[in-house]
Amino acid sequence: MKVLVTGGAGYIGSHMVAALGEQGYEVLVYDNLSSGYRDSLLCGSLIVGDLANILLLRKTLEEFKPHAVMHFAAFIQVGESVREPLKYYRNNTVNAINLLDLIMDLDIKKFIFSSTAAVYGYPKRVPITESDPVAPINPYGCSKAFVEKVLEDLSIAKGLRYVSLRYFNAAGAHPSTRIGERHDPETHLIPLVLKTAKGERESVVIHGTDYPTPDGTCIRDYIHVMDLVDAHIRALEYLFDGGTSDAFNCGYGHGHSVRQVLDVARKVTGVDFPIRESDRREGDAPSLIADCSKIKQKFNWTPRHDDLNYIVKTAWDWERKVRRS
Q1: Which residues fall within 8 angstroms of residue 137, CB to CB, at 6 or more apart?
Q2: Is 162 inside a domain boundary?
Q3: Is 167 part of the annotated catalytic residue set?
Q4: 323: confidence class by pLDDT, cuts 50, 70, 90
Q5: pLDDT per residue over 104-115, tens digit each?
Q6: 30, 120, 140, 167: which is the annotated catalytic residue?
Q7: Cα–Cα nearest to 169, from 246, 106, 250
Q8: I need a labelling partner for 198 at 20 to 30 A (CA). Which of 10, 109, 180, 233 fits?
């Protein structure tokens, strides 16, 4: 089977490409390398191109003839999306529509979408279920929610079969340390903590210590990237087996606070890195935890790496390798 992966040179995309290769799929990556890295591709072929380049995208799809498309290409920084909303709507929404327009024209009817828990905004309850309201509070979340709505409408009108996977907090790295998390600039907690432990940053900042949580800091549901890509493999198999269009949360169903992450990172690294406390950031919910019972039941998905120590250790192994290279 042939799979086209957009954004396959990025963090989650590169781990996805590696897993597809291991499973025997023929993979073609379509990536403009604006935030991805050519050396992150452990298998498959690469077309360097932008989703706004309709002619190149059509040519790529016509020549490769994929049986399914996995769409990861997107901007992901919430703060930047508030400052530059058009950048996010243009890339995350309009370019996704460009892709969908072409695959419908070429009769490619299996699509997996990289979505986000940000579509829920401020949740009314925790853990969050897929039936809870989609009510994003920033342009990043809105840009993804719009695509989910387009997918829903195309499924009804044109027979597209899709799976939308709503990620909570992806973290960790490939156990081989050949690939890992690389963002520029980096905004995610675990890599920021580890870069501080390496001496690349002066301190770790805790944004808010007065939340209604046990230790006053935000709680997030961290999922290891390898469990996340396994969920994608199962979603792909589900579509090939005739599964119907649906959306699924991707998390572990429990969370860790910022202070808990810092404590684990100190144990894993052996470094007593400096911590600085600051005011809350606008838009940070106290707790975001997935109800992942639906994906476990529908895909028979059982996470193998539900261990914060393991998540941080694989990320640390990767970070130390990056420093040496």
Answers
A1: 121, 122, 283
A2: yes
A3: no
A4: low
A5: 999 999 999 999
A6: 140
A7: 250
A8: 10
